[in-house]
């Protein structure tokens, strides 16, 4: 059968029309909608469609992005784009990583989550504060086809948290080459250098 077996799979183009943003995180949905602007897509969020939040049982960012995108595509019958992302701190062996949202607890309290990172780093006062954000994007179609892209941005962590423009861990993340945190940066400037912007540029080059 053609297209199966060991043949490389062609990248599938995304046609103009409806696209579900398979995320329940308002900050991410806002950034994703801005990154997709002007591409002829009618963007609907998982929240607008009342889609349930799937349990993130994967062990990698890509696995979790794929399971969220597939769940939304299956339930909506539309192509769906999911983002699984997180902050990886070198001195903490890559934590919180795929558990970044879960460190915010049931109330999704990122002051608490940033405090947890600070407390754990306090035990290693001489360790470098290097960290990076990762963003895996998965684009899934209702017939099961899926495409993946992964982006990254490197930086260092600073305390106290600075700025109120971003979301999640943005106030403690100082990207390399900048003297303001993601929390102090306007959204278009953040999108230009962020893990999410990086993954999006790869996706745009491939599927449009
Ligand atoms: O799964 P969905 O519904 O998309 O929403 P979520 O918030 O649970 O998203 P993730 O599972 O991907 O967890 C990612 C967490 O990592 C953090 N994060 C990801 N991208 C970030 C960014 O650009 N700035 C700050 N924090 C970010 C933020 O705390 C997120 O809650
Ligand atoms: Mg999540």
TrEMBL record:
CDD domains: HAM1
InterPro entries: dITP/XTP_pyrophosphatase, ITPase-like_fam, RdgB/HAM1
Binding residues for substrate: 23-28, 85, 167-170, 190, 195-196
Keyword Lipoprotein: no
Magnesium as UniProt keyword: yes
Record-listed E.C. numbers: 3.6.1.66
UniProt-annotated binding residues for Mg(2+): 55, 84
Reaction catalysis annotation: ITP + H2O = IMP + diphosphate + H(+); dITP + H2O = dIMP + diphosphate + H(+); XTP + H2O = XMP + diphosphate + H(+)
Active site per UniProt: 84
Superkingdom, natural source: Bacteria
Short name of one Pfam family: Ham1p_like
Cofactor detail note: Binds 1 Mg(2+) ion per subunit.
Cofactor(s) needed for function: Mg(2+)
Alphabetically ordered keywords of this record: Hydrolase, Magnesium, Metal-binding, Nucleotide metabolism, Nucleotide-binding
PANTHER family: INOSINE TRIPHOSPHATE PYROPHOSPHATASE, INOSINE TRIPHOSPHATE PYROPHOSPHATASE/HAM1 PROTEIN
Subunit structure as annotated in this protein's UniProt entry: Homodimer.
Protein function: Pyrophosphatase that catalyzes the hydrolysis of nucleoside triphosphates to their monophosphate derivatives, with a high preference for the non-canonical purine nucleotides XTP (xanthosine triphosphate), dITP (deoxyinosine triphosphate) and ITP. Seems to function as a house-cleaning enzyme that removes non-canonical purine nucleotides from the nucleotide pool, thus preventing their incorporation into DNA/RNA and avoiding chromosomal lesions.
UniProt family annotation: Belongs to the HAM1 NTPase family.
Protein name as catalogued: dITP/XTP pyrophosphatase
Organism: Sphingomonas hominis
Protein encoded by which gene: rdgB
């Amino acid at each position: 059968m053609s297209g199966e077996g060991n043949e490389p799979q062609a990248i599938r183009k995304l046609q103009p029309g409806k696209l579900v943003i398979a995320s329940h995180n308002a900050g991410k949905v806002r950034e994703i909608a801005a990154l997709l602007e002007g591409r002829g897509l009618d963007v609907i969020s998982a929240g607008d469609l009342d889609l349930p939040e799937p349990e993130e049982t994967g062990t990698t960012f890509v696995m979790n992005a794929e399971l969220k995108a597939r769940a939304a595509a299956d339930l909506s019958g539309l192509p769906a784009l999911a983002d699984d992302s997180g902050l990886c701190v070198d001195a903490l062996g890559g934590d919180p990583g795929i558990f970044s949202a879960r460190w915010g607890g049931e109330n999704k309290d990122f002051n608490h989550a940033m405090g947890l990172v600070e407390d754990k780093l306090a035990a290693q006062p001489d360790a470098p504060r290097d960290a990076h954000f990762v963003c895996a994007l998965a684009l899934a179609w209702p017939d099961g086809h899926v495409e993946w892209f992964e982006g990254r941005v490197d930086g260092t962590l600073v305390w106290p948290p600075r700025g109120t423009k971003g979301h999640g861990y943005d106030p403690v993340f100082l990207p390399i080459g900048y003297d303001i945190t993601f929390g102090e940066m306007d959204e278009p400037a953040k999108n230009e250098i962020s893990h999410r912007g990086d993954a999006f540029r790869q996706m745009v080059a491939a599927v449009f």
